[in-house]
Write a structure and sequence with these properties.
The chain is an all-alpha fold and 296 residues long. It is 76% helix and 2% strand.
């Protein structure tokens, strides 16, 4: 009985890898358990207590959740964040795809343009927030010197500033993912469509977009979750002002936990609810977009 030489060689190579697999996995698993799993479990546990410190706590059951859900600022932050996420996801993905589409057409200097568009993603959120605050307030003063709509005094200006900041930071990152997807579009499909007389729009709609659905799924997931989790940019740009009008969910939880005189347990309960909201929305988005991939 003859054996396939390549298969035998592959099996022999995999044996030592299997032996040391757990050894290489262990440090990462331990770090993940210590840095995420254990604090996450403790966070859920503490959400059922009134506490100032970990040793001074009083069990209240679902009382913290009831108070969190009765807090009007929490619901305002949720709807403000949802509207912000919707607009940001649409704008970021449209512009990121358009830029990626242009840069995959073989124009001169495309590599330089990719670098320039990606660079804002390397800047920290706090720094970006203060930079854009100066920019937007400067524009507001130029528009109306007598009564400038400063970003901390005008909710509309604050909302526009947050959307602009997020788009400027995230478009370059999503552009890279779309470029990778566009470069993997089967060229034979495109050529066959051209031979059949299909125009650019029909090729884009029926070949390009279905082929990059995995990239669309990834980019939509990242922009959606990043929008809901936005914190440092919100803190630096508007700090939730005026009167908590531009306060997003993460910042609302932070202020409830650290700056409020009430029990930290309410802030912890808000954090758990926030986690559940983000998970449900993200899973729903993944289900819908992956279903689209299967249909295509």
């Amino acid at each position: 009985m003859k054996h396939n030489g390549a298969a035998v060689t592959g099996a022999l190579m995999r044996r030592p890898i299997r032996r040391v697999f757990a050894l290489f996995l262990l440090p990462t698993a331990v770090a993940f358990a210590i840095g995420f799993v254990w604090p996450f479990i403790w966070g859920i546990y503490l959400s059922f207590f009134n506490f100032k410190t970990l040793t001074l706590k009083e069990f209240v059951g679902f009382g913290n959740y009831a108070k969190a859900l009765a807090d009007p600022s929490f619901f305002h932050s949720f709807w403000f964040t949802a509207l912000y996420a919707l607009i940001s996801v649409v704008l970021i993905n449209i512009f990121a795809f358009l830029i990626a589409f242009v840069l995959t057409k073989g124009i001169r200097g495309s590599n330089a343009f990719r670098t320039v568009f990606f660079m804002p993603n390397l800047i920290g959120g706090i720094v970006l927030g203060y930079i854009w605050q100066l920019i937007i307030n400067g524009i507001a003063v130029k528009i109306n010197e007598m009564n400038p709509p400063l970003i901390n005094l005008n909710a509309t200006t604050g909302f526009i500033g947050l959307v602009a900041l997020m788009c400027w930071q995230q478009i370059g990152y999503m552009m890279i993912i779309y470029i990778a997807g566009l470069q993997n579009v089967p060229i034979e499909y495109v050529e066959a469509a051209k031979i059949d007389g299909a125009g650019s729009w029909r090729i884009l709609r029926h070949i390009t977009l279905p082929s990059i659905m995995p990239s669309i799924t990834i980019c939509t997931f990242l922009t959606l979750t990043n929008s809901f989790k936005l914190f440092d940019q919100n803190l630096a740009l508007t700090d939730g002002e005026p009167a908590h009008a531009t306060e997003m969910l993460a910042l609302n939880i932070y202020k409830t936990f650290y700056q409020s005189s009430i029990s930290k347990g309410i802030g912890q309960a808000k954090a758990v609810l926030f986690f559940l909201v983000v998970v449900i929305i993200a899973l729903l988005q993944l289900y819908l977009t992956r279903k689209k991939e299967v249909q295509r």
